Glyoxalase
Amino acid sequence: MRTKPFIFLNGTQLKDGSNPIMPRLQHVSTPIPAGAQQQVRSFYGGVLGLEEKEVPQTLKHLNLVWFAVGEGELELHFVPSTVLVAEEDPRHFCLVVEDLDAYKKRVSEAGYPIIEDLAIHNRPRFFTKDPLGNRVELTVILGDYRDGQ
């Protein structure tokens, strides 16, 4: 049973006078087959240019691979698992880039697929698949997608 009041994330003060802090994303975890860490490093570090982060000492035995994305502590985590993503699974994460055409060229020249999808206003984008079949969306944010609708 809920004992605390709902938190409204539109800046409304709570009954106790405090201001709620909007939750934010800290990391996304994606399953990979055991032993695929080098493939992950080659694609995300080599092709996409993400910076690998050191995994905390207490987690090193799990053979995780972490990358920094964006400002602050936003990260991608790759976790060895026996439960992997099915070929047609639509789950994915999206990376915002500055030059979508440059990334499209890098991904294509590295031999990865360019998958076009339905257009979103002010969000040119494409999907690709990493070497392990995980879907990755890349986009540029040109403005509010609701403008002009």
About this structure: The radius of gyration is 19 Å. The first strand starts at residue 27 and ends at 32. The beta strands are 27-32, 51-53, 65-68, 75-80, 92-96, 125-129, 135-139. The chain has two helices and seven strands.
